[in-house]
């Protein structure tokens, strides 16, 4: 008792044992104990004969309460004295309770808030789990540390994913550039007949390339934003860790809730359809290039010149499978364009002073091998021009040597 703070003793003597506040209109009962008039009246209730003292349990007469004016004066002096003295002492160790101006020495785990000794005795916290401030400090610092570990791991995972996807994006763009070079190199060997096809393919590649850039940029931007958000939380939590005990515990619950609420979901992986699109595009380009070369036609005597649109035959060998007139089937021939099933089509033939030539269209022979399905036109040396039908029709001797002929295929004619 000799070591007890005299200021605290004075404050205790000026405090009502029932409400634990400074006395308000103090009264003395028969046993000599003092209480707030309203507190003791509520305690006695309607009892008039006798009741027990809430402090010593001695039987007293409820109606024999005497105002204790000297105590009321001491309470007023104590209030002024204690506030100044306690505030000065409390500033060295922490904040005061806003309600009672007492040092905050306890921590309520139910409300996640600092309490003074008076708050601990109040009805508001009487049933709550209250622990010493030091114990709460250690407990919540451990919890904050664990949460920081989780956040740092999340940040590392997303940073790693971002680097990986940046690499993948660059690789896809590099593949797109490779395809660009392939397209340009191939089309340099072809003639003006393929210029329109080149333009279309480059436009498609540009669209795909822009799509890769846009989606990659958006995806990486989302990851950067997520990293920035997590780094913000980490900074706040690190700053929180460095705060004094009272500041740290003052709103640690709200800080943790905000941190948990702001937890990011596992980010989506880089869109796999972009890889599939560039792969599909590459395969489509390869197939188109194969279709433009004569090696798929399996004609041993035909040679495709480097300009891509001129065919020369070293010998006139019979080749083909379609049912046609004997004269037409005696000539070598080669597919000049892809199969088509509808619409109007046209192409230009360069004769280059050839003595013999023919061109036209053929219908699919797989359905009926016995019926002629070839419409063609050609030149038979000096005999003139001829139309190849079920019966060859001579059109007379040539008046001029043709250099070019344009072929039109109209759907209503087939």
UniProtKB/TrEMBL annotation:
Listed GO MF terms: zinc ion binding
SUPFAM superfamilies tied to this protein: B-box zinc-binding domain, Concanavalin A-like lectins/glucanases, RING/U-box
Domain spans labelled RING-type: 16-57
Keyword NAD: no
UniProt keyword list: Coiled coil, Metal-binding, Zinc, Zinc-finger
Domain of life: Eukaryota
Coiled-coil portions: 134-240
Name this polypeptide is given: Uncharacterized protein
């Amino acid at each position: 008792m000799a070591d007890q703070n005299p200021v605290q003793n004075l404050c205790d003597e000026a405090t009502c044992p029932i409400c634990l506040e400074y006395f308000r209109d103090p009264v003395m009962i028969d046993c000599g104990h003092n209480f707030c008039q309203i507190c003791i009246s509520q305690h006695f209730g309607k009892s008039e004969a006798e009741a027990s003292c809430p402090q010593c349990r001695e039987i007293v007469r409820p109606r024999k309460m005497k105002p204790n004016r000297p105590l009321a004066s001491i309470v007023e002096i104590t209030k002024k004295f204690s506030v100044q003295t306690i505030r000065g002492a409390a500033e060295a160790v922490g904040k005061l309770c806003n309600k009672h101006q007492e040092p905050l020495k306890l921590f309520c785990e139910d409300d996640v808030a600092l309490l003074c000794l008076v708050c601990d005795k109040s009805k508001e916290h009487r049933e709550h789990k209250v622990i010493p401030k030091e114990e709460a400090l250690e407990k919540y610092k451990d919890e904050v540390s664990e949460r920081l570990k989780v956040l740092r791991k999340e940040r590392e995972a997303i940073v790693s994913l971002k680097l990986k996807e940046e690499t993948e994006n660059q690789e896809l763009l590099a593949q797109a550039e490779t395809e660009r070079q392939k397209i340009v190199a191939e089309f340099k060997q072809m003639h003006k007949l393929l210029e329109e096809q080149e333009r279309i393919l480059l436009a498609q590649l540009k669209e795909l390339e822009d799509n890769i850039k846009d989606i990659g940029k958006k995806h990486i931007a989302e990851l950067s934003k997520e990293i920035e958000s997590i780094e913000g939380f980490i900074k706040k939590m690190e700053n929180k860790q460095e705060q004094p005990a009272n500041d740290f515990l003052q709103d640690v619950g709200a800080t943790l809730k905000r941190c948990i609420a702001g937890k990011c979901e596992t980010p989506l992986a880089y869109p796999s359809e972009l890889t599939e699109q560039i792969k599909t595009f590459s395969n489509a380009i390869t197939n188109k290039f194969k279709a433009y070369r004569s090696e798929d036609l399996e004609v041993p005597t035909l040679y495709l010149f480097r300009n891509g649109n001129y065919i020369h035959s070293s010998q006139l060998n019979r080749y083909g499978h379609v049912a046609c007139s004997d004269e037409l089937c005696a000539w070598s021939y080669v597919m000049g364009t892809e199969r088509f099933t509808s619409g109007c089509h046209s192409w230009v033939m360069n004769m280059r002073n050839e003595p013999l030539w023919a061109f036209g269209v053929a219908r699919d022979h797989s359905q009926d091998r016995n019926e002629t399905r070839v419409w063609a036109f050609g030149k038979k040396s000096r005999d003139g021009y001829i139309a190849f039908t079920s019966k060859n029709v001579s059109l007379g001797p040539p008046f001029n040597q043709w250099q070019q002929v344009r072929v039109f295929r109209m759907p209503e004619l087939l």
